[in-house]
TrEMBL record:
It comes from Mesorhizobium mediterraneum. It holds the Pfam family Omp85. This is Bacterial surface antigen (D15) domain-containing protein. Residues 1-33 form the signal peptide. It is found in: Membrane. One of its GO terms (cellular component) is outer membrane. The lineage of its organism: Bacteria, Pseudomonadati, Pseudomonadota, Alphaproteobacteria, Hyphomicrobiales. Residues 344-642 form the Bacterial surface antigen (D15) domain. The keyword Transmembrane applies. Keywords: Membrane, Signal, Transmembrane, Transmembrane beta strand.
Length: 642
């Protein structure tokens, strides 16, 4: 993770970030496009703020500009929007076509797309009429020339007609025993072409899940009854035989080992075919991060042994990468980071990453700057395709408010995907550290065995609308130098629920709780205690600002904590969202959280949806502010707060 990503994430190291962080977030998300000559353009999130586009049209032969008007008097607002989105003429209106022939071709293609959009909305009597310079498209000769003043006027008139519903539903062939209602085919229900095609795919998928890879629709009879505005659907399906996996062949590999790629699919020859396993194999190959694209295709017929061959097509990414990043906060100063990595070190998707960072420039004395450096290695497929071996060495010198910390840590372990939603991991770690905190100077040598379980069925990692994620973490630890033994326990859960069908209103909840048992507060190193407050915790409060403090007002951490958050994520437009939220949390020196001493913060956030996740800006105030707490906090990040 780059410094830009870490500053924005509000995850493992929450920060108190004010207006400078918002500026930095924008800079991290900005692309500057410069071209030869005098033309230059500046874009942010794909929106051109300034610059000429003449150079973009230089490759068009005989450029011809046009202006399009869409008239759909019978359509409601939602349907008008769908039609406009389906129109290539409308989408490309700012870009000229290549002469009169180009305009004719674009208009003919547009009519087909608009009819398809009407069918998707169950408008099977819809009529699309396109005129160019006032002449109907069908009346224009193939070599028509438009010589009038530009832009050439193009008018699209759409008579939508009535909306059809499903009528008689019949499933035949090997699907005769299935119920159409189980797949969304219900008399009086949605008759849109998309709904019918989705039902077809679901029926075929259901048969494939029985181990029948050749299942397909052999005949489709769709009859639109214009007198009753109903759509009768008859589908004939052939299931085909139950089969196992045949040979897996791989194409497109260059630097990645082909046999290893085949092995990582996990599709063992002879085991019964499963479309879900094929999907998981594709996701697993993409998860190696060495391929730009991965496609798995079943053959059209079974082999001589009655198995289905699987073809894998991949395209590789560049193996090496590097980057630099920076952070700035008015409270924590300037931070710089650099990293170099290799995605395919020995040809089997082994990863090596070396990184270093320095922070606190401008806010700390030169003798109290923060340093971090590490090297990490990963090797997938060590005990089966679902496994991953990892190892690393990291050194850190940091000076947060709670303590001064120098440490060298080494770890090695294994993670394993039980299935698409569940992952377990185990590792052994050895951590040598010197820490100065409110209790004095201490030297530790901690041996630990972190164990973790994660269940995650969210529909998106960066912007979930449904599903939930749960994490359970146990870390038994032993201080070899001082003889203290303790166990760190932590659990987290977050859930997401769409209030409406379009997911314009999403309710998000998060709960986290933790406890350290087996040792007193002074026996637990300061960097392993619990802290709360800040952008990734309870917004409105300072980083590490919630919980017990020493006589100088500095945080000392605790043996237990509890946090919870509630957000309503409201989509104002397709790209803009507003998020009111409430956070609460507490930290205690006891082994169980003290719920009577909860700190609560509330605020509102702004979201801008980008291809790499939402850009987040949150403003919050503490509702039960203490004398040392700030009056407000502003936080910026990429991705939702949780």
């Amino acid at each position: 993770m780059s410094a830009c990503e870490r500053q924005m994430s509000g995850g493992t190291a929450p920060r108190r970030v004010l207006s400078h962080a918002l500026l930095f977030a924008l800079l991290c998300s900005t692309a500057l496009v410069a071209t030869s000559g005098n033309a230059a353009a500046f874009e942010i999130f794909g929106i051109k703020l300034w610059g000429s586009s003449d150079d973009e049209d230089a490759d068009i032969v005989d450029p011809l500009r046009y202006a399009v008007t869409i008239e759909a008097p019978d359509a409601d607002e939602d349907l008008v929007k769908k039609l406009e989105n389906a129109s290539a003429l409308k989408a490309d209106e700012e870009r000229p076509v290549s002469g009169s022939l180009g305009l004719l071709a674009k208009a003919r293609g547009d009519r087909d797309q608009l009819i398809a959009a009407l069918y998707a909305d169950a408008r099977y009597e819809g009529v699309v009429t396109i005129t160019i310079e006032g002449k109907p498209l069908d009346d224009l000769p193939p070599d028509a020339e438009f010589s009038g003043p530009q832009p050439i006027p193009v008018v699209i008139n759409i008579a939508t007609g009535p909306k059809f519903t499903l009528g008689d539903i019949r499933l035949e062939g090997d699907a005769a025993g299935l119920l159409g209602a189980d797949f969304g085919l219900i008399a009086g229900g949605d008759a849109g072409s998309g709904a019918v095609l989705k039902a077809e795919a679901s029926i075929v998928r259901a048969l494939k899940e029985e181990g029948r890879p050749l299942a397909n629709v052999t005949d489709r009879e769709i009859v639109a009854d214009h007198a009753t505005s109903t759509l009768d659907v008859t589908l004939t399906v052939a299931a085909g035989p139950v089969a196992g996996y045949g040979d897996t062949t791989v194409e497109g590999t260059e630097k990645v080992d082909r046999d290893f790629t085949e092995y990582m699919t996990g599709l063992e020859r002879g085991r019964q075919y499963s479309p879900e396993e094929v999907d998981e194999a594709r996701d697993r190959l993409l998860g190696l991060e060495v391929f730009n694209s991965v496609t798995l295709k079943e053959a059209d017929s079974l082999d001589a042994d009655g198995n289905i061959p699987i073809g894998v097509e991949v395209s590789e990414r560049k193996p090496r990468y590097f980057g630099i990043g920076g952070t700035f906060s008015n409270t924590e100063g300037l931070g710089l980071e650099g990293y170099w990595g290799h995605r395919n070190l020995f040809g089997r998707a082994e990863k090596l990453r070396i990184e270093g960072a320095i922070s606190g420039i401008g806010s700390n004395d030169l003798t109290e700057l923060n340093y971090n450096a590490g090297i990490m290695f990963e090797k997938p497929g060590v005990v089966g395709p679902a496994s991953k071996f990892f190892a690393g060495v990291n050194t850190v010198l940091e000076h947060p408010d709670a303590y001064d910390h120098f440490a060298v840590k080494g770890n090695t372990g294994l993670s394993y995907e039980l299935d698409k939603q569940q992952t377990v991991s185990a590792e052994v770690a050895l951590d040598y550290s010197k820490i100065t905190d409110s209790f004095g100077k201490h030297t530790y040598l901690i041996a630990s065995v972190p164990l973790q379980y994660v269940y995650d069925n969210r529909d998106s990692r960066l912007n979930p609308t449904t599903g939930f994620r749960a994490l359970a973490y146990v870390e038994p630890s032993y201080d070899i130098l001082n003889g203290a033994a303790f166990v760190k326990l932590r659990g987290e859960g977050s859930a997401y629920q769409s209030i409406d069908a379009a997911s314009k209103f999403v309710l998000a909840e998060r709960v986290a709780i933790g406890s350290i048992i087996g040792a007193g507060l002074q026996d637990v190193p300061a960097d392993r205690r619990f802290y709360a407050g800040g952008g990734g915790s309870v917004r409105g409060y300072a980083y590490q600002g919630i919980g017990p403090k020493d006589i100088d007002g500095e945080p000392i951490g605790g043996l237990s904590y509890f946090e919870t958050s509630l957000e309503m994520r409201i989509a104002v437009t397709d790209t803009i969202g507003v998020v009111p939220f409430v956070d609460a949390g507490t930290v205690s020196t006891e082994q169980f959280p003290d719920f009577s001493d909860m700190k609560v913060g509330a605020g509102v956030g702004l979201r801008y949806i980008t291809p790499f996740g939402p850009l987040r800006v949150d403003a919050a105030v503490p509702l039960n502010r203490g004398p040392d707490d700030p009056r407000f906090g502003i936080y910026a990040g990429i991705g939702q707060a949780f």
